[in-house]
Every structure is written in C-alpha cells, then in structure tokens.
C-alpha cells in the first residue's frame, strides 16, 4: 500500500498491466479535454479535476524507469500548460489546481524535473510562481473579509508545500530562476500584509473582526515558515527590505506618539495607529521567520543563509558603526553616524531594539494604553527566537562566523553583555507596567526563560543588577494579576540562573535572595493562627495558589547542579502542601495545583535526587495519595463539573505515579554519599498508589479518552518494568486490574487496545518463565486466551491491532500449552 493513501486523493499506482494504457498520450489528453468541457458544471467539474490530480500522482510499476517517467511527465505538463494558458483559474478550481502541483512535486521531485527540456522546466516554475502569487492575494482577501470557506487559503498553502520541495533541493534546479521566483513570492506575501501605499491590505473595521482562538503566529505558522524559507533564498533582498520597512514604521510610530502626547487623539489618528501596528506585527512575524528557523527539539542555530549573507557583507561594513548602531536604541539610524555602513543583519536586530525603546518611552510618558498588546507579544516572540539562535551562540557549531556577529553577540563580547542587560530591562519593565495583559506577560516570561536557558547567557545575567531588580519585583507582591502560567514561568527563569553559578557559596547566597523569602512567606501564611479560621475566604485561597504556583515554577527551573539543594528547601513545602490538600479538599483548583506540584517534582527532580531525598519524596507522595483517597473514595457529586474535576485529579495522580516509577531506570543522582539506609523502590510506591486509585476508577471515568489513555499507559508501564511486583498484588486488586484490561481489549479505541495487549504480553511472558501453575495470577490470566482468540477469529478488533493481538495470543498459548484448553 502507498504511504500516501491516507490523503484525500491517494496516489495512482496501477499494476504493470495498465502500462500501455497510461503511457498513451491520448489518455492524458482525453482527461484534460473532459475537464475543459465540464468545468462550467462544478458538480461534474470537481470529479474531473480529481481525475487530473490522480494522474499527477502516477507512480509504481507503470513507470519502469527514469526515461519513461520523464516521457509521461512531459505529456502531462504539455496538457496542463495548455489548460492554464487558455483560462483564468477560478476560486473553486484553485484547490484542485494546487493539488496537481503538490502531487507533481511529490512524485516527480526536482531530481527528476531537471531532466525535462529547459524551456518546459522554466515554464513549470513560471506557472507555479504565478499561481502561488495569485492564490496568496486571494487568501489575503479571504482573511480580510473573514470568509467561512477559504479556498484560496488552502490552495496557497498547498502551493507553498510544492515550493518546499523545490527550495530544499534548489541545487537540482536553475538556482537563478528559483531565486527570482522565491523573491517574487516573498514580495507578494509581504505586500498582502502591509497597508497602502507599500501594500494592499484592506482596512477592516475592528467591530467586524471575529474572535479567533489562535494568534496569527500560530494560525499562519506553516505559511510563515515557508515564506521565511523563500526570504532566505535572497537574503540580500529580503533583510534590507524588512529592515527599511520596520525603520519606517517605527519612525512613524514615534512621531505619532510624540504628537499625541501634546494633542488629543483623533479618530483618524487612532485608525492610522491601528494600521501602523498591524504592519509592524506582520513585519516582525515575517522577519522572525526569515532570520531564524523553528528548532523544536533541536539546537537552535543561525540559518546558514544568514551566516553566508553576513560574511559576504563583511568587506563593506564598518564594525564600529555596527556596534554603535546596536547600542543606541533611543536614536533612529539616520541620527547615528555612518549607520549605512553597519552589518545589515545586525542593523535589523538593532531596529527591533528601537521598537523596544519606543514602547519603553511610551510607557514612561504614560502612553501605555496606546500601545498594542499584539505588537508587544510579537516583539517578545521575535526577541526569544533571536536569543535562541544569535545571542552567545556555540561557535564550534559553525565553520565560520562574521566578525560583526561575534563582536555583537559572541562569547566574551561587550555587545552580548549589553544586549542581555537591555533585554532584561525590557522584561522587568513589561512585567512591572503591563502585568494586566496575559498574552504579553506569558511571551515576556518565555523570553526570560530562554535568556537563562544557557549556561553562557546565565553567567552574564547573574552578574547584572537587573536580575536582582527582577527578583525584588517578583517578591514585591505587585504581580498578583499574573496568570498562573506566567507566575510559574517567572520563578522558573529566576531559579534556572542558579545553575550558572559554579561556586557553592555563591549559589547558596543566590537562594537566600530568590527562594528563601517565598518559602518563609508561605510557612508564615500556613502556620498563622488565623489561617485555619479564614482559609475559606477567597483572598486566602488566592494567596495559597500564588505560593504554590511559585514553587511549581521553582521545580520547573530545576537542573542537575541545583536539584539537591533545591529539594532540601522544597521538602518542607511538600509536607505542608499535603496538609493544604486535606484542608482544601472541596476546592478543585487548590487540589489540582497541589497535585501539579508533586507531578513536577517527580518529573523534574526525582532522577537527580539521592536515595535519602528520593525516600522523602516517596513518603510525601504516599501521604498525598492517601489524603486524596480519604476524601474521594465513595464520593459522588451531582455537579456538572464534578466528574470533570475528578477526571483531572486522577490523571494527575497517575502522572505522578508514573514519574515516580521512572526513578528505577533513570537515576542521575550523584554517587558516593555513603548512604547505607534501605532504599525504597519506586515501584512499591507506585503499586501502593495504584491500590488507592483503583477503587476511584469507575467504568464511566474510563470512558473519558485522556484519563483512559493515561491509566492504561501507567499499568502497562508498571508491568513492563516490574512484572514480578504486579504478580504479587493482593487478590482483589489483581482482579480489578484484570477486569480493566478486559475492558481495554473490548471497549475502547486502538491505542488503548494496543496497550492492553502489551500488558498481556509482558505479564504473560514473565508468568511463563517464572511462575508455577498454582499462583492465582496465572489462573487469572487464563480466560484471556479464549478472549483474545475469539476477538481475532471473529474479526472484532481493528486491523491495526492484529500484530499486538497475535503477540498476546502467542504468549498466552505458551503460558497454557500444557492443558491445551483455554
């Protein structure tokens, strides 16, 4: 079967007996003629167009060699070009036509296309370029009009996928033509998102803008990634253009804010400011994707095109002018001597710093209400990507870097130290003056975490006065408006700095400033005489949540060098948190937050802890699970949210138990502590927790997909790591466990079914090798032989489960082969 058959239009892969039919030029011509005749009647036309899409994906035995592939492709393209030159593609045809190009590039990649006649290849690229630009303009129009059916938008994204195939193999094609086409697409996209006169974006009344869940950088991420790829093909064009447009918009923004400072804001000026902000927002998004790449799960690097561009500009730049331009954000480039001789890449970065400075001056002038949260969020997003790739890069990852980049952002450079200080001041000011804007605050906190998520950057930051200013702000109590996520992120960023301090005394002193005050404040709160009397008051609950969020953030900032010291300060907090769970057991928000604290400890700290510290965490976790069970076993609620709350609680408990179990095979704790005490096995704690959780698991709760998946992951994980301990479970618990496995085989989806079969395999294998016939667990497993056999023979299981089911059947047959009867 083809790997592409999950597509709406699976590939055309006929057997070799169809070779002569499909290679007959008249067949392809027939289908194109048929489409031409019926395209006016879309009920028939879309079926005919789907046939053309299928023909574009012809592959397999009918195309026996490269020569035959080229011959067929030539015939197809001749018909396609004839169609495109004879008419204008309408909106309803756009998606089908884009699918044709996507299929062509997928099944006839650039390494094949280069064998086409030169003129035909040029014509293919020209048509691809023209249609991409046309669909981009149509997509922008649909976006402005907020249309429900966005055919041009889908078509445009399909065309960009086609270009991804070409740009990633640009060495196979005519690089000059590809570069020109990529530049044209980039310019078209940029124009569609800018206001006149440079752009064509249509102003939209704010009242007509629909509320969308996703931000632009998320909703249009795939587009922006590929537009960034297009921009990097001609960095010498895109980078100066984006810089010029940003400088122009920022200059106009400064002028308007200065004018408003001494005059009342008119409606016309407000509209102009909105249009200006929308321009800056999109320029930041596009510039961010041109100068950086998405590096999820990988080391962030400066794109090779940007390195090459900066190197090529080196002979003509003035290093002193470059650094002066970077270090004077309060001045516009025209006010900085010799700014034209600055490195173009660093000039763009300095332009973004000027936007930071413009917002800063507006806040100081009490004009913060005129700033755009969307622009500020995009600014923080850009700065975060910039930090990841450019600020103190690991120079060993590059064969060469320009002197301008290493002087401005490299290790031991004054430019890097200045930039870090400046960004830290931006973070502090934003949190202090704009804490009521949740999206902006979260992006600002993400920037802070990125800044400290590097030993080199952290070593610079811990020496700055700005970091202590941020610590004072965090502990001042003025950030109560921060969301839970932002509060955690802020504390995470501060705690992560400690890992950059190699000296133990320096680290201890750092803790006294960052962590000891919150711990002392929390203990003072929960041990006060008034706490047990007033704990039900809303203000008291807010204070409790505030403190626990801080501690969750501290745990999230845990790294190997700081784990042991951090845990020694946190262990008392864990005990108090269990007490809070007991006290606030009727308040789901507090219960969840306490459980999240323990889950984070299991995920982030446990693997670094010594045996004695691990035992303390195990004991606290056992106490936690027991306290939770005391208030929830046998509990029933008539509230609509009640079951949902319990579902979230149980999921967190199972995540905790699973993370505790991981200690037995991921142990990174320092050795040589001379601890002779008996080591508590994580599996024992996990099984104790399972014994408490099992009575809480009802068939109704297991029908909740997320909870169900987490439960079966946990029990299968336990069986894989410690099958011997599962076999020793109490009889009642074992019976309940096997009943749930039977439900997993018959009542839920394929993912849960796979986990259930895996459970039978690992447990059955252990029983077969190690357990005698007299053990109850062996007899408990016996009915599954008949059940699995019946499921396979009656075809009651998904075909995707057949391999897992067969493995389970084989294992069970091995277990019970003596009797020969299930």
UniProtKB/TrEMBL annotation:
It is found in: Cytoplasm; Nucleus. GO terms for biological process: protein export from nucleus. One of its GO terms (molecular function) is nuclear export signal receptor activity. The keyword NADP does not apply. This is Exportin-4. Keywords: Cytoplasm, Nucleus, Protein transport, Transport. Coiled coil: none annotated. GO terms for cellular component: cytoplasm; nuclear pore. Gene3D superfamilies: Leucine-rich Repeat Variant. SUPFAM superfamilies: ARM repeat. Belongs to the exportin family. The keyword Nucleus applies. It comes from the Eukaryota.
